[in-house]
Write the structure tokens for this entry.
Amino acid sequence: MTQPTDIRRVALALASTGVPVLPLSRGKRPVANCGSCTKSACGDRPHMLAAGPCRCPSPCHGWAAATTDPDVLTSPSWAPAWRGASAVAYHPGGAGLTVVDLDDDAAVAWARAALPRTRTVATTRGEHWIYQGAMRSANGVRPGVDIKSLMSYARWLGPGTGITTSLPGAVRALLERDQPTQARTAHAAARPPLVMSAAPGGGGACPHRSPAYLERGIAMAVQRITDARTAIHNTTYGAFLAVLSTHGRCGCLTDAHIQQLFTAAHARGESPRHCTDAWANAQTALGM
């Protein structure tokens, strides 16, 4: 049986390579909120943002707790988590990686036929294919296939074999298949139509399909964040919420658009964790 000290030793070794890590509980789940942050009383949720960002040293926010800091990983506040740990997890997106999680033999066979080869790690039921480059995470992008990158975690199962190659367009394109075109169209039709001067009479085509409309919305959100002098965290969350409420359900947003927003927030002092937390909170608030 693997001992907690062995698990932590693996985590420290992995963290030393720049990969953010966290302990997984016996049920292979990330550690839940600690006592000080129960129900996110630390201010991690949208309605509590005025309390400020969480500075709790415990591993209490799942994938967002992943860190490369050895002082944090070996701190007394993390000791209970390591004592109850069964494995090490890591945040692929935080390391600039994407894991294509292939859950069965059929999914593995599909990947071998459709995707460029890369570093491969055997799992209990299938394989993890690891690419260099981060993207949004999504489950069930096709039968037996999940994408684990930003705002997600993957279990560390060893270094695997092969050479890590660049994230291919074929993997990014899987997000477009996450919701079939007919489902996206039906979802958009069920929403109240947006009133825009340039929109065709009777609702017509979805205005989100206009590149100029989308780019203008991103530019306005970036400017809103850039102009903020106080309440940066609240302003960032508000800008993310505005973008997602308008463009988050129709498939228009790309990783490049999200990166523009995150870059603007970083320039105003927001950490990568705070940006990903604010983005996730905005999605939750909108029921995404």
Notes: The longest helix spans residues 211-227. Confidence is low (pLDDT under 50) at residues 44-53, 178-206.
